Amino acid sequence: MTNFPTQEEIVSSVIKGIITAKNNFTFWTADELYLSYAPPKFLTIHISQEIAKLENAPELFIDATVADILRCSLPSRDAFRDFMKQKYLTQDTLCLTLDERFPHKSDNDSISRVIMSIKNGVRNVKEEYKSEIEKMCKMIEREKPSDSTLDYGIFAFYLDISNSARKKSEQRIQEIIESFDKIVNSFENLKSKFKGGDINIIPNIGEWAVGCYIIEPTFNLNKGE
Length: 225
Description:
- The structure is a single chain.
- The protein has 6 helices and 7 strands, in the order ααβααββαβαβββ.
- The protein is α+β, with helices and mostly antiparallel strands.
- Helix 5 packs across helix 6.
- Helix 5 links the parallel strand 3 and strand 4.
- Helices cover 36% and strands 24% of the residues.
- Strands 1, 2, 3, 4, 5, 6 and 7 form a 7-stranded mixed sheet that branches.
């Protein structure tokens, strides 16, 4: 195993990547506010570039499938089908997956560590977002650390609104966090936290913010490994 980046390093890179995306989009388009109009992969690419700068950068995979991630994180490589059936997981993709970086002996020995859902233009709680949170919860949640190599999941997002918006960013972010918390709390062995959320105000135009909602497994040590 390599020295995998810390969660703090990864989250910092995610936030920096989205801010860089914001700055680039503003310069490229001469638009003061609406990064939310950028193509879906715009944030993912910028985040990937920032994570790749880390000293012990992980391997990065864009749009890896649920099956492939589970195959690379469960104890048995062929256990993903039963896992998906038991958890009611359908085939889908995750925006970004971080794997251990090491010399591979085959094309079937990757080890997945972090999964991310990255959304642009997040302003309200949507079923689409809640489905993403539930999907990551199902993939991460387990009783023992040895049941999976997935360390945590991140729902990273960019939010912007104009001055005319009735509901301001702070309230919108709080509602998003509360809705996600309800989902995470419905699972026995998970916990969550939120990083970011600083409100940036552009006078006479609007405001924007970047957030990372992080989902982690939690274990009862009395049960052992």
